[in-house]
Target: Endonuclease V
Amino acid sequence: MAPVDLASWPRTEDAALAEQRRLRPLVEPRGAAPAPGSLVAGVDVAYDDERNTVAAAAVLLDLGTLEVIEESTAVGPIAFPYLPGLLAFRELPAVIDALAGLRQRPELVVCDGYGLAHPRRLGLASHLGVLTGLRTLGVAKTPFGFDHQDPAPERGAWSPLLDRDSGEEVGRALRTREGVKPVFVSVGHRIGLTEAVSCVLALTPRYRLPETTRHADSLCRRTLAESLAAHS
DNA sequence: GCGACAG
DNA sequence: ATCTTGTCGC
Model:
């Protein structure tokens, strides 16, 4: 996997918007779910704004057993400010570095955030998919700017996540645990929405968030804390 | 113009 | 995202 060249990474809002327009037509919003024994990666990042440092983690799990197979991390400078709708430019350089450190290639990458459920239909999950060619999906914890009805209380229940203007279904509010707030699933790249939802259910046998996300979250936090200690 | 706003 | 303790519950 080609590492990111930070020298040519967008630095301004205009450049980032132009890059989204360029990549958007390359998203493939259909495709099968990976087979039960496939390797699935979870990715996440943690920040230290004081030191302009970001730590990313990629954790590889067996989709069938949910056992951790491999871990990889990357630490680097924060590549972009946080602007809603441009999150990918902040997170992806470190995420791609972490993914590049995995010895085995995942058949799916689960991202913390959105894919097609995005103002310009290029959230970080889709962006990552187009840049790497990997199959991706997004799982977000809040509805961003979209409308939805509360799904029925049982695990597996869902309702469409709708664009406020067009009414288009851009994702699904999915109940991964009975009686707990839903998560918001959207297609990233090379997978359909129904298939993405079934993957997320396979990854949430017990908690609200996918096992992939939970492992990646704790690993990137640990990595950031260790890099902090090492530099003081 | 104002508020809302993935992480 | 991050600042932050104890506490209720499975």
Residues 45-49, 82, 90 of chain A lie near DNA strand C (CB under 10 Å from a C1'). The longest helix of chain A spans residues 211-230.
